[in-house]
């Protein structure tokens, strides 16, 4: 069939962006910190870890590393940890590598839609609002008097929930919560707080 047949779209007019994918090589690095109270012990452990990792380069490919480009051990550093100011020795081990990644342009699997009651205004995430890290609330960037609704995927049941009227918080004018303690899928709190800090005394 000729490409210019009436009623048949030309190849150049077909939207090929949906499902478009490519594979590329990406550079990265990981630093492992060996910490011990005794300097020579930290140095010995760091050397053992260094030589072990050097011997298993091929095994690292199982974890998505395409090629290891370099290993390195840094110099010893005396640091303090925690409120008690405990002095320890830190020896860094650096691994540089190349990983092969495939990326694809496609629609989001789990969409969150926040909009006004009349649906005449659809708010944009990151511009007009953001979801709390635990998925339990919607924070509007600016205060509004409009009734706000949300469509989302429930994190517990994985059901599609539509037209849920958000409840405005009494304590914070720009915070809205979901009725019946609803939780939006795809948002997770990774940690609550740091347990300690490290200060470099070098």
Verbal overview:
The protein is mostly beta strands. It has two domains: 84 residues, Dodecin subunit-like (2-Layer Sandwich), CATH 3.30.1660; 69 residues, no CATH class. 8% of the residues lie in helices and 41% in strands. The protein is built from one helix and 13 strands. A hairpin with a 6-residue loop joins strand 9 and strand 10. The longest helix is centred in the N-terminal third of the chain and has 17 residues. The chain is elongated, with a radius of gyration of 26 Å.
Descriptive keywords:
202 residues, mainly beta, Dodecin subunit-like, 4-stranded antiparallel beta sheet, 8% helix, disordered N terminus
CATH class of the largest domain: Alpha Beta
List the domain count as a whole number: 2
Strand runs, count: 13
The second-level CATH architecture of the largest domain is: 2-Layer Sandwich
Enumerate how many helices there are, as a single number. 1
Helical residue percent?
A: under 10%
* First-to-last CA distance: 75 Å
Mean pLDDT: 78
| Category from helices, strands and their pairing | mainly beta
Tell me the strand percentage band.
35-45%
Round the Cα radius of gyration to an integer and report it: 26 Å
Element-level helix/strand string: EHEEEEEEEEEEEE
CATH-assigned fold name of the largest domain: Dodecin subunit-like
Question: Could you give a short account of the major beta sheet?
Answer: 5 strands, antiparallel
Question: Which regions contain 5 or more consecutive residues with pLDDT less than 50?
Answer: 1-17
Overall geometry:
elongated
């Amino acid at each position: 069939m000729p490409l210019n047949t009436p009623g048949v779209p030309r190849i150049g007019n077909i939207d090929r962006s949906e499902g478009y994918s490519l594979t590329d090589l990406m550079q990265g690095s990981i630093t492992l910190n060996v910490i011990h109270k005794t300097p020579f012990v930290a140095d010995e452990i760091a050397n053992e870890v260094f030589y072990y990792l050097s011997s298993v380069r091929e095994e690292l490919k199982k974890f998505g590393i395409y090629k290891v480009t370099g290993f390195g051990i840094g110099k010893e550093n005396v640091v303090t940890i925690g409120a008690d100011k405990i002095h320890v020795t830190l020896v860094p081990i650096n691994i540089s590598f190349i990983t092969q990644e495939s990326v694809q342009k496609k629609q989001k699997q789990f969409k969150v839609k926040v909009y006004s009651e009349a649906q005449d205004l659809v708010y944009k995430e990151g511009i007009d609002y953001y979801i709390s890290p635990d998925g339990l609330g919607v924070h509007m960037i600016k205060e509004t008097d409009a009734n706000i609704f949300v469509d989302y995927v429930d994190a517990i049941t994985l059901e599609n929930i539509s037209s849920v009227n958000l409840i405005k918080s009494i304590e914070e004018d720009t915070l809205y919560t979901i009725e019946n303690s609803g939780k939006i899928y795809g948002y997770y709190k990774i940690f609550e707080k740091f347990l300690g800090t490290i200060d470099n005394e070098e």
